[in-house]
Amino acid sequence: MSTIEKINYDTFEASLARSKQLEKDIQENPGKYKVLTGDRPTGRLHIGHLFGSLQNRVRLHKLGVPTFIVIADYQVLTDRDTFENIAENVIQLTIDYIAAGIDPSDGRTFIFPHSHVPELNQLLLPFLTLVTNAELDRNPTVKEEITASGQKRINAGMYTYPVHQAADILFCKATVVPVGKDQLPHLELTRTIARRFNTRFASNKPVFPEPQPLLSEAPIILGLDGSQKMSKSRNNAIMLSADEDETALLIKKAKTDSDRRITYDPANRPEVSNLLMLASLTTGRKPEEIAEEIGDAGSGQLKRLLTESLNEYLRPLRTRRKELEQNLDYVRGVLRSGIAAAREEAIKTLEEVREVMNMKI
Ligand code: TRP
Q: What is the pLDDT of residue 358?
């Protein structure tokens, strides 16, 4: 491994610039690309996910790009001990995706838990031989997760899951991965693994493309405490599955400040500005314009306006969600077809991998 090139962690700005270029080309040539995205099944999704990543996926998918969505159930065990609810969370996540507008009946969108695709998982073994322990140890996102997990004993899955994530992405030869900033190190590792694999085993005819990250320009939605990112574990989230009264109550309790006059000023008034941003996303109006209109009527008025616009905005999604909860056979069927399609891809790729590694007998 000594002569091999280093993993190159790009600057965020460089990645963003490249993303914009990529975005333009996807719009023009959607058929040229294949998207893979994924989530850990740790619970239901909230409105931060909806405005942050889900809507971006729905948009790409509507452009006509084939899309695989991996539900990373093995990854759940990297930073927690509980696994009681994994299957239930997989189902709820699938319901959230479909309710948000992902349409698996279009024949080019596949949702699957990676635990059900053995050939994908098997790619992990050759991939592990293409990275060093030191490289895995340096991954900034893994380091943060280790700190955040509060666990004293860190299992080896925590250090190696980014290599497994490379298998999630490369098994179907995805070319575009829509991600948030925290996933960029994993994408860079994936690109490195693809490159090293091709150089070492397939120099005549590369097996893997180097997938590109697509950063979304969606705003980061803060929690209702206004101080940090919206997250179920921080108890500051509005779940997609919440009903209208629960939503009203959560907004009523949201933190604001003591200045009665409403202004949009994210740097100095993060709480009020976050509520204005949500009002903007759900009405299609500018946050400054909404602030102006509320003026001295204060945060009570802002909260009433937001409650109404958010509940109205989410109504169709929540109705679909309820219908899907009554129709779990359909949801399980979506996963079964997703698994079948993913396996078909993974079997083909593993065949090629064995072939170039001289393992075919
Ligand atoms: N690590 C991602 C997260 O925590 C989930 C994930 C697993 C993923 N496999 C992926 C994301 C492949 C993008 C592509 O959110």
A: 96
